[in-house]
Design a protein that fits this description.
- Chain A is mainly alpha-helical.
- Chain A has 8 helices and no strands.
- The model of chain A is unreliable at 72-94 (pLDDT under 50).
- Chain B is an alpha+beta fold.
- In chain B, strand 5 and strand 6 form a beta hairpin.
- The longest helix of chain B has 21 residues, at 30-50.
- The termini of chain B are far apart.
- Classes of the chains: A mainly alpha, B alpha+beta.
């Protein structure tokens, strides 16, 4: 299998990560599309024998950072991306909505680390490489992300209990 | 116990010795067990929530190597695009520089365009939005099935907030077309364009197109072509409705 075929195979995984990262489907697929455009254009720079998945997630990370930086309210994207700012509901499950909202509360850099570790099951070294940060930073972000989400979920459980009363 | 080891333990990154060390430490610190369990649960919840994305059909435009120029063009061109003759459009598509565009994609795009026009024509109708109302659905589907020469049915979209209000028969490129209209409680409408084509043997995943202010999700399932249109709801919401229709019509 050549790189191009493997790249296509990895698209569903890019979509899963993007969905969790940005929240709504349309924005996530736009991110994936931009990532793929960049990846196709730069595929000749990818070094054979190295991890294509890690390379692809690095590309996505860079594209995402640039998009976030470039996103301004005056963007002329019109209603193509109406919900860029708000993280919209994912599915019908209340759980997913709450989870999605909770993830949205995390600082983006913590979110990226948690999702790569949890969804992609990347090793800490791979995460460090993909995000171009030291491994110590990976650990501290992971730790903070988990603790913050635990707090949010517990808060949610408490709120639910109160409602039941 | 340092925090990094605890996370490495949760993520299965420790060797047997490291695991044993964490486990014996946890045995002595029950309050920390709770934290570890919560982190684990969090991971499972995340995977449960997002793993379904892995099995979704990948939108066709993500498979093409570059953003199709028509996607940007369509936004700018607006309603003028609708006025372009179908033949001119087909010719223009041939200039599209994507690698080897499949003929079915062209046929699908033409269908999406016709669906958008039908949507723009009929969805604003207040008094006569449909020819046959949903109160007589068996008659509606029997009639449309007979005219299309193949069984046609209106998917149930209540679960995604849309109720069938009825349907009508339309002229298509190669024969009659069924057109179903749905409405949500807020009054916004979506229409489903159903084409029968016994010459086609292709199948496509869900694709997205935009004609002026009408958004269209469309797909081809061997003999049938479907296009779901809306001018009022976001691409994302329409996608949910399209998914629901797609799942029922292509089980």
């Amino acid at each position: 299998m050549n790189e191009a075929e493997r790249l296509v195979e990895l698209i569903p995984r890019l979509r899963r990560y993007a969905r969790a990262l940005v929240g709504d489907r349309a924005t996530a697929d736009d991110l994936v599309q931009d990532t793929l455009e960049r990846a196709w254009a730069k595929l000749h720079l990818y070094r054979r024998g190295t991890d294509l998945r890690a390379w692809l997630f690095t590309v996505m990370h860079n594209v995402h950072v640039n998009r976030v930086r470039a996103a301004r309210p005056t963007d002329s994207l019109g209603d193509e991306m109406p919900e860029l700012a708000q993280r919209a509901a994912q599915g019908d499950a209340l759980l997913v909505r709450d989870l999605d909202r909770a993830i949205g509360c995390l600082p983006p850099e913590q979110r990226a680390v948690l999702l790569l570790v949890t969804l992609e099951e990347m090793s800490y070294e791979e995460v460090a490489q993909a995000l171009s940060i030291p491994i110590g930073t990976v650990m501290s972000r992971l730790s903070r992300a988990r603790e913050k989400l635990r707090g949010l979920m517990m808060g949610h459980a408490v709120a639910k209990l109160k409602l039941v009363k | 116990m340092n925090d990094a080891d605890l996370h490495a333990y949760i993520d299965g990154r420790l060797d047997a010795e490291g695991r044993a060390a964490v486990e014996s430490w946890l045995a002595a610190h029950p309050e920390q067990q709770e934290r570890v369990a919560a982190y684990r649960q969090l991971g499972e919840t995340l995977r449960e929530a997002y793993d379904p994305v892995l099995s979704e059909a990948v939108p066709a435009h993500l498979h093409s190597r570059r953003r199709a120029p028509w996607q940007r063009f369509a936004v700018a061109a607006g309603w003028i695009a609708i006025g372009i003759a179908i033949g001119a459009v087909a010719g223009w598509w041939l200039h599209d520089s994507r690698p080897a565009p499949a003929p079915a994609a062209d046929a699908g795009a033409v269908m999406a365009r016709r669906a958008a026009i039908a949507h723009a024509t009929y969805s604003p109708e207040v008094r006569h939005p449909v020819e046959v109302g949903a109160d007589d659905e068996p008659h509606l589907t029997a009639w449309l099935s007979k005219r299309l020469g193949t069984p046609v049915r209106a998917p149930k979209l209540e679960a995604v907030g849309y109720k069938l209000i009825g349907g009508r028969l339309l002229p298509g490129e190669s024969g009659p077309v069924a057109h179903f209209m749905y409405q949500c409680q807020a009054g916004t409408r979506v229409t489903l364009y159903v084409r029968a084509d016994d010459k086609s043997t292709r199948e496509t995943a869900l694709r997205f197109s935009r004609e002026g202010n009408v958004r269209v999700f469309y797909w081809v399932d061997r003999k049938m072509g479907y296009a779901l249109s809306s001018a009022d709801i976001s691409k994302e919401t329409l996608n949910k409705v399209a998914d629901a229709a797609y799942q029922q019509l292509n089980p």
